[in-house]
# Entry
Amino acid sequence: MLKAVLFDLDDTLFDHRHSSREALKVLQSEYVQHLGAVAMDELEMANLEILNMVHLEVLAGSLTPDEARVKRFGMLLRKYGIEPSQDKLGSIARHYRDSYQLSRRAVPGAKSLLASLRDRRLKTAIVTNNLVEEQMDKLRYCELLELIDSITISEEVGYAKPDVRIFQTALDRLKCTPEEAVVIGDSWENDILGARAAGIRAIWYNCYTIDVPDGSVPEIRSLQDSNAVLRLLFPD
# Structure
């Protein structure tokens, strides 16, 4: 019997993609000659690929978030033949961060889905890789906290997805077994494969509409139709 739904945060309940695209427009306007003709989809995927690499250093504690942004934009701009100074990179990173913060929002449909789960007396949890202060600030800003029963963040527990221990910690806090839970997340490696390794059923939120690695996992591309998600949660 299903008792709990474990959600990833970034690009699952929190609309990181929206904020990132809005902030990348700052970068394009700063370097119109080099980046003006680059499609946003291309720039977004290049930024995401570098972000995923550099973010591992943040989780390991070898870079602060501010240092990581400077490093990331240096790598991204060099990809397009731009060699800014360190001072310039610092300025770009700050402008990106300001734009990102101002455009934060919940994924469309996230609040109503969480409310629907609560109406069905299901417990809800966040299982996320990042820093505690960063993730809690997003949840407060997007007014999601009151709809969440438990929060498990990698910095707090000392291990990150796809490590099965972070999922087990979340289950322990909810007093659920793996068979009584479902994981919904956008990262195939961290959320889907991590959930499978922990023995938890998974639903892939494919917000970037990429090719499905494994057709055996149910896929959604929006949270706006709560009934469609509920049908996947309760397939019988």
